[in-house]
Fold this sequence. Notes:
Radius of gyration: 19 Å
Helix content: under 10%
Number of helices: 1
Shape: globular
Amino acid sequence: xxxxxxxxxxxxxxxxxxxxxxxxxxxxxxxxxxxxxxxxxxxxxxxxxxxxxxxxxxxxxxxxxxxxxxxxxxxxxxxxxxxxxxxxxxxxxxxxxxxxxxxxxxxxxxxxxxxxxxxxxxxxxxxxxxxxxxxxxxxxxxxx
Length: 144
């Protein structure tokens, strides 16, 4: 039996795409300040258990994810990225990440943590965000 292979020609570059955080109609668009965005899945497993019968019971698997991004810091304006992250710290909010126009997106809920402020003098500083997803995010059903 031949192993399946990925179809040729489907490798895409990241961007142009979108990254929005917050409720529909009030979502903050991070896309214009974002230089890197990733949804990072993680699996936690427990050990298998040997049974008296000689069989083995598989351990449990739990899937989690984080939204990770690098964004340029703003000037601390009301309604900006940093203001949003500080004002909504600890809040569970929806997010949508579409890696490239015309492609499928990833949607879910995440917990907002405050972004860092500052960095190198005279530089356009960035902040690294790593926000935990609540549950596991989903791929949208919209196929390109």
